[in-house]
Amino acid sequence: MSGKAAHKSRGDEEIQTETSTAEEAVQATQESLDKVRDILFGAQVRDTDRRFSGLEDRFAQEFTAFRDEIRKQLSSLENFVTSELSALAGRLTTETNQRNESNNHFSNELRNTTQRLEGRIHEFDQQHASAEADVRKQLNDQSNAAREELKAVHAELHTLVEKLVTDLRSAKTDRAALAGLFNEMAGRLQG
Are 41 and 49 spatial neighbours (Cβ–Cβ below 8 Å)? Predict the structure, then answer.
């Protein structure tokens, strides 16, 4: 090693030694200050630490009690909500069943009423058809009777007309014979 390097190495060692000595001095001073503080303020610090420790314990107990109370209340609330939901679900199921029964009842009544109405309509249709058939039969019978009556009246009128025509012809013939007779008489008178 050269002289500069040896000198540098020795200088570094000295700096390190001085630094470590300074640190030891600072540490020794710090320890001395801690001892002085402990002598001057030790009782107050210990009393404050004890009070602080008591407050921490009391805070921890109150926090634990508060947490337990909250858990109890939440559990109670959960039980209440669960029971209310169960009761509500029960009422909802009961109401749904009642509505379904009511709907079924009304559906059955509607179906029965519809069947009765269809039966009455069918009965009315049959009565109407029967009445219509009776009216047609009566009209047909009356039409036939009127036709027969008209035929009889026609026959009577025809007979009467023929009789009148015959009577008229015979009366006319008598008139012709009478006229011939008058002519013959007139010819005899002239002659």
Answer: no
- What lies within 8 Å, CB to CB, of 37 at 6+ separation is 45
DSSP classification of residue 7 = H
Can you tell me the distance from the alpha carbon of 140 to that of 178, in angstroms, rounded to the nearest whole number?
54
Compute the distance between CA of residue 85 and CA of residue 14 in angstroms, rounded to an integer: 84
Tens digit of each residue's pLDDT (9 = 90 or more) over 77-115? 999 999 999 999 999 999 999 999 999 998 999 999 999
Rounded Cα–Cα distance for residues 130 and 21 (Å): 139
pTM listed for this prediction:
0.37
pLDDT per position as a tens digit, 154-191: 888 888 888 877 877 776 656 677 778 788 888 888 86
The radius of gyration computed from the CA coordinates of the chain, to the nearest angstrom, equals: 73
CA dist list (Å): 61 to 51, 55, 65, 68, 165: 15, 10, 6, 10, 149
The token pair that represents 30 in the structure block:
């710090």
Give the largest Cα separation in the chain, rounded.
225
CA distance 20 to 16: 6
